[in-house]
Design brief:
DNA polymerase, domain 1; Rossmann fold; phosphoglycolate phosphatase activity; seven-stranded parallel β-sheet; 47% helix
Length: 270
């Protein structure tokens, strides 16, 4: 795992990184090798032909809307609400996993009913969602470079289009930049099941070596691994830090992600 910060490549290129002047100890040698491999991977990622994104916590800040939808659902079924910090830990495995965590011990039938109610609520609140700072610039840069874009999310498929309309309300043409958008329509295919990720690769005729998955949770890391893709972990999202560090590369900010994929640290980022 390589942690990428906005100064990392600059320090390596000007000779100030540990080991650049010649490794003297085992630790120096290890750091030197890590820096070398990290720069090599970054160089490769700048030339990928397809970037597959997660949605919640990666492209968009959706914790508030998900939290409202979850607690509306809990209230509707006479259950206690949860604080946002707790709901953050429920997200990532799809609706059934979310409500198994939010309402442990309820029957499968009740969980399915709760998921149906939640779908309507999360679609209602999706209009409040927004892109993280720096993401619009990143997508525009990738589109200008003719890099294919896709989204594979565990968000309900029925909610995806309304969510994207809200996220791209200021630039609706951005929705057309995505060659594929997959939400969850079959609970058995929830990530980390790689079915939809592999389908994007197959439909676009792109091999795993020419693509990368970008996400913010252990589910995203596992999805990428199952599909044979490299993974960039997003430190600003909803996932736990220890899980994100299992990705091949960790971007601390959206500016870092922009630089990894486009070679430009521009934009305010997070």
């Amino acid at each position: 795992m390589l942690v990428v910060k906005s100064t990392s490549v600059e320090n390596i290129s000007n000779g100030s990184a540990v080991g650049v002047q010649g490794p003297r100890t085992f630790i120096d040698s290890w750091n030197f090798l890590g820096n070398f491999l990290g720069c090599k991977m970054e160089a490769e990622l700048k030339h990928v032909r397809l970037v597959i994104f997660d949605l919640d916590g990666t492209l968009s800040d959706t914790l508030e809307s998900i939290g409202k939808a979850v607690n509306d659902t809990m209230a509707h079924y006479g259950m206690n609400s949860h604080p946002l910090d707790a709901i953050r830990t429920f997200i990532g495995g799809g609706m059934m996993v979310l409500f198994k965590r939010a309402a442990p011990g309820v029957s499968e039938e009740m969980l399915r009913d709760m998921c149906k109610f939640y779908q309507n609520k999360v679609e209602l609140y999706a209009r409040e969602d927004r892109l993280y700072d720096g993401i619009e610039e990143l997508l525009a840069g990738l589109h200008e470079r003719n890099t294919k874009l896709a989204i594979v999310s565990n968000k309900p498929q029925v909610s995806m289009e309304s969510c994207l309309r809200s996220l791209f309300r200021n630039r609706p043409e951005m929705r057309e930049w995505f060659c594929a958008v997959y939400g969850l329509s079959d609970l058995s295919l929830a990530k980390p099941n790689p079915t939809f990720t592999r389908r994007v690769l197959e439909d676009e005729g792109i091999c795993p070596e020419d693509a990368v998955y970008v996400g913010d949770s252990i589910v995203d890391v596992q999805t990428a691994q199952a599909a044979g893709l490299r993974c960039i972990g997003c430190a600003w999202g909803l996932g736990e830090r220890a899980d994100i560090e299992k990705a091949d590369v960790v971007a601390e900010t959206t500016s870092d992600l922009l630089r990894i994929l486009l070679g430009d640290a521009g934009g305010p980022g997070l």
